[in-house]
Amino acid sequence: MTARIARLESRALIRVSGPDARSFLHNLLTQDVETMGDGELRFGALLSPPGRLLFDLFIQCINCIDGIVLLDVAADRHDALIQRLSMYKLRAQVAVEADDQPVFVCWDGEVEGFAPDPRTPALGGRRYGGDVETNATEDDWQAHRLAVGAPDPTGDAPDDKTYPIEANFDLLNGIDFRKGCFIGQETTSRMKRRGSIRNRMLPITFDGPAPAVGAEILNGELRAGEVLTGRDGNAMALVRLDRLEGDLTVDGRPVQVRRPEWLLIEA
Fold this sequence. Notes:
Layout: E1 4-7, E2 11-17, H1 21-26, E3 41-47, E4 53-63, E5 68-74, H2 78-89, E6 95-99, E7 103-107, E8 115-116, E9 125-128, H3 138-148, H4 153-156, H5 185-194, E10 199-205, E11 216-219, E12 222-231, E13 234-240, E14 248-250, E15 253-257
Antiparallel strand pairs: 1-7, 2-5, 2-6, 3-4, 4-5, 7-9, 8-9, 10-13, 10-15, 11-12, 11-14, 12-13, 14-15
């Protein structure tokens, strides 16, 4: 099978460079940046101090010795992340600037020059820059992402109210609980340690077009969640884990929660 390759116009890059680049990011993000090797790709987030998800992002260390790191973030949050990182700089010897290289993804096969997606092998790989011939569209990629069942946190929950664990960051290698401090760590670690996770983003299936964003999912007469983004037959939803058993409906239509192979929900 020929691998599919698409350019993601919905993503943009930020370059963080300087002697303190890795330690600067390491102390802010949910991911361990200091142990990265050249070319390695990791998934993480920048949270608010109360632990809410502000920016989901991929991190790639381009030149670890010299301190050059790329951040792959939603294009419509790109400027806001630059502003936020610049606010945290203080006396750190770092430069934070836009990088205009394109973002590419591949799936359904390996392609040289693409770093494996750290969330799950089913999501293929990512590449930044270069002259890459594409044979698929971003819409094809989004359909594949939904089929895999992986949330797009910025697209699915753009209101900054979601906790990273609700978006499955703990199950998709987006949080390093051993690395020490990061912004929002206290709330995130407490939720994981106590198992106080009531809601998660999960894929749902149904017949026909996707329900409206925000449409209520019901289990009988009880609210069981809400629809996020989707397309015909598939969508992401934020659902209550204690109300998944039984007949679920949205706008009177039956829906089913689909549990991807990679997703192991703890009891």
